[in-house]
Amino acid sequence: MKVWIDITNAPHVHFFKGLIRELEKRGHEILVTTREFDGITGILDMEGIDYYVVGKHGGATLEGKLIASTERMYKLSKLIIEEKPDLAVYKHSAEAPRVAFGLQIPSIGFVDNETAVAQNKLILPYTNLLIYPKAIDAYELIKCGADPNGMRALKGFAELAHLYGFKPSRKVLRELGLKKRRYVVMRTEPVKANYFNGPEKSVLEDIIPLLPDVPIVLFPRTEEQKERLSRFDNLIIPDRPVDSLNLLYYAALMIGAGGTMNREAIALGTPTISTYPGKLLAVTKWLVENGVEYHSTNPKEVALMAERMMKMNGSHRAFVRSFVSGLENPLDVILEEIESYEEAGRFQVLSREELLETGHTRSYVGLNEGSNEEK
């Protein structure tokens, strides 16, 4: 079977690398497409994954996003017509589901951001099987067009798949001149994302001065962020793609104004503070409620919590790793669904009773009774 995987964001390389390797082991042919954005091609090269570059990110404006997405759909359509894949797989790709739908190619989509409403409305109506974290109320996805008969919730989060093949190595520490548990990793806000509605100034700008005695490895998303934050003496800003998983594994702490690197850190058992200034994702709320992540946008609160977490590093890591050990890995779930499709020519459609067991009874009861009202 020929499986097409569309990778549109840098973290998605880590999400899909395990799936690509496992499908190749099982004799499937893999077609990977990507776009010019946020160093994706450099990470794909580092992972030894072959790919086609199709299109680019449209920037922060609506006009730019629309034109770039339209152009990418056209170019993707030409390539996919020629390549003729049997199945499409993607994570938050706005173009792949519509191309697959138009060419009658079955699709599996993974979505973990219910706040990206505009993007989800371009994805969910055209996705045959939607896999999503159980922390998300399915009704939020159904409102964006997801088919309630083509959904599968999992107890876990996307970044667990990023750990495929992970082996601790201190090479990146030597490259950056760092010592185990003696540094902090930070990530700025996703200012170009269509769902981001926070301020232009990064909250990290007021946190960094409160941690002057600890080396900080910073990953800015834009040149503007890099220029504003590079004035601090204790910052290290890598000028090329680095082994971020090992960097997070050996860090004393992760402080992130985004989401992906925070959850990667949690998957690795590293103490984590979220400083995201906008509406929190359901997954983030779930992690905070379970005590494995702390959230605040108050610089003094963050600095105090950072010092506390770094002092109780060992016990906190043990707690986080114990929590993570009981979760489902998206890689296993997607592989199971692909095997189901290959063997039976269909995905595993959950029964009404199984859907109700996801904990979002109001979503399915209302729709199954022919009503759009919440029950």
Can you walk me through this structure?
This protein has 375 residues and is an alpha/beta fold. It has 2 domains: 201 residues, Glycogen Phosphorylase B (Rossmann fold, 3-Layer(aba) Sandwich), CATH 3.40.50.2000; 155 residues, 3-Layer(aba) Sandwich (Rossmann fold). 42% of the residues lie in helices and 15% in strands. It is built from 17 helices and 13 strands. The strands form 2 sheets. A 7-stranded parallel beta sheet has the order 3-2-1-4-5-6-7, with helices on both faces. β11, α11 and β12 form a beta-alpha-beta unit. 42% of the residues are buried.
Summarize the entry for a quick read.
42% of the residues lie in helices and 15% in strands. The chain has 375 residues and is α/β, with parallel strands linked by helices.
The number of distinct helices, counting runs of at least 4 residues, comes to 17
Number of domains: 2
**Stretches with pLDDT under 50, minimum 5 residues:** 359-375
Series of H and E elements: EHEHEHEHEHEHEHEHEHEHEHEHEHHHHH
Find the CATH topology of the largest domain: Rossmann fold
The fraction of residues in strands falls at: 5-15%
Strand count, sense and barrel status of the largest sheet are:
7 strands, parallel
Which SSEs are present, and which pair or pack?
Elements: E1 2-7, H1 10-25, E2 29-36, H2 40-47, E3 52-56, H3 62-83, E4 87-91, H4 96-102, E5 107-110, H5 117-123, E6 129-133, H6 138-142, E7 151-154, H7 171-176, E8 184-187, H8 204-207, E9 216-219, H9 223-229, E10 235-236, H10 244-249, E11 253-256, H11 260-267, E12 272-274, H12 282-289, E13 294-295, H13 299-311, H14 313-324, H15 330-344, H16 352-356, H17 361-368
Helix pairs in contact: 1-2, 3-4
